[in-house]
Design goal:
mainly alpha, about 85% helix
Protein backbone atom coordinates (compact mmCIF):
# COMPACT_ATOMS: atom_id res chain seq x y z
CA UNK A 1 0.00 0.00 0.00
CA UNK A 2 2.75 2.49 0.93
CA UNK A 3 4.61 1.67 -2.24
CA UNK A 4 1.59 2.56 -4.42
CA UNK A 5 1.09 5.86 -2.56
CA UNK A 6 4.76 6.67 -2.98
CA UNK A 7 4.56 5.83 -6.68
CA UNK A 8 1.48 8.03 -7.09
CA UNK A 9 3.15 10.94 -5.30
CA UNK A 10 6.30 10.54 -7.39
CA UNK A 11 4.27 10.44 -10.61
CA UNK A 12 2.36 13.57 -9.57
CA UNK A 13 5.59 15.41 -8.78
CA UNK A 14 7.03 14.40 -12.15
CA UNK A 15 3.93 15.66 -13.99
CA UNK A 16 4.10 19.01 -12.18
CA UNK A 17 7.85 19.28 -12.81
CA UNK A 18 7.32 18.45 -16.47
CA UNK A 19 4.64 21.11 -16.79
CA UNK A 20 6.89 23.68 -15.11
CA UNK A 21 9.77 22.76 -17.42
CA UNK A 22 7.51 23.03 -20.47
CA UNK A 23 6.30 26.44 -19.31
CA UNK A 24 9.92 27.50 -18.83
CA UNK A 25 10.65 26.44 -22.40
CA UNK A 26 7.67 28.47 -23.64
CA UNK A 27 8.83 31.54 -21.74
CA UNK A 28 12.38 31.14 -23.08
CA UNK A 29 11.10 30.72 -26.64
CA UNK A 30 8.87 33.79 -26.35
CA UNK A 31 11.71 35.83 -24.88
CA UNK A 32 14.07 34.73 -27.64
CA UNK A 33 11.48 35.72 -30.24
CA UNK A 34 11.07 39.19 -28.71
CA UNK A 35 14.83 39.71 -28.53
CA UNK A 36 15.29 38.65 -32.18
CA UNK A 37 12.45 40.96 -33.23
CA UNK A 38 14.12 43.93 -31.55
CA UNK A 39 17.61 43.08 -32.81
CA UNK A 40 16.45 42.64 -36.41
CA UNK A 41 14.16 45.66 -36.59
CA UNK A 42 15.19 49.16 -37.56
CA UNK A 43 14.24 52.05 -35.34
CA UNK A 44 11.59 53.15 -37.82
CA UNK A 45 10.08 49.66 -37.83
CA UNK A 46 9.97 49.56 -34.04
CA UNK A 47 8.32 52.96 -33.86
CA UNK A 48 5.69 51.86 -36.39
CA UNK A 49 5.08 48.54 -34.58
CA UNK A 50 4.65 50.35 -31.27
CA UNK A 51 1.11 51.42 -32.23
CA UNK A 52 0.03 48.06 -33.71
CA UNK A 53 -2.31 45.90 -31.61
CA UNK A 54 -0.87 42.59 -30.35
CA UNK A 55 -1.50 39.44 -32.39
CA UNK A 56 -3.61 36.60 -31.00
CA UNK A 57 -0.46 34.68 -30.00
CA UNK A 58 0.93 37.76 -28.29
CA UNK A 59 -2.34 38.21 -26.37
CA UNK A 60 -2.12 34.63 -25.11
CA UNK A 61 1.48 35.17 -24.06
CA UNK A 62 0.62 38.41 -22.28
CA UNK A 63 -2.21 36.68 -20.42
CA UNK A 64 0.22 33.96 -19.31
CA UNK A 65 2.68 36.57 -18.06
CA UNK A 66 -0.07 38.46 -16.22
CA UNK A 67 -1.29 35.29 -14.52
CA UNK A 68 2.11 33.80 -13.61
CA UNK A 69 4.47 36.09 -11.69
CA UNK A 70 7.38 33.63 -11.89
CA UNK A 71 7.07 33.33 -15.66
CA UNK A 72 6.83 37.13 -15.92
CA UNK A 73 10.03 37.60 -13.88
CA UNK A 74 11.90 35.04 -15.99
CA UNK A 75 10.68 36.66 -19.22
CA UNK A 76 11.54 40.21 -18.16
CA UNK A 77 14.93 39.17 -16.77
CA UNK A 78 15.81 37.68 -20.15
CA UNK A 79 14.59 40.47 -22.44
CA UNK A 80 15.25 43.57 -20.34
CA UNK A 81 18.80 44.44 -21.36
CA UNK A 82 18.65 43.83 -25.13
CA UNK A 83 15.17 45.33 -25.59
CA UNK A 84 15.73 48.41 -23.45
CA UNK A 85 19.11 49.08 -25.04
CA UNK A 86 17.52 48.99 -28.50
CA UNK A 87 14.64 51.20 -27.35
CA UNK A 88 17.13 53.68 -25.91
CA UNK A 89 19.16 53.70 -29.14
CA UNK A 90 15.96 54.37 -31.11
CA UNK A 91 14.79 57.17 -28.77
CA UNK A 92 11.65 55.21 -27.93
CA UNK A 93 12.31 55.75 -24.22
CA UNK A 94 13.79 58.92 -22.72
Amino acid sequence: MNRSIGTAVFASVMVVAGAAAAQGLLVDAAADKVIKKFEAATCDQLKAQKNEPPSEKEKIGLDLLRDDPKARVAFIDKIAAPVLNKMFECDIIP
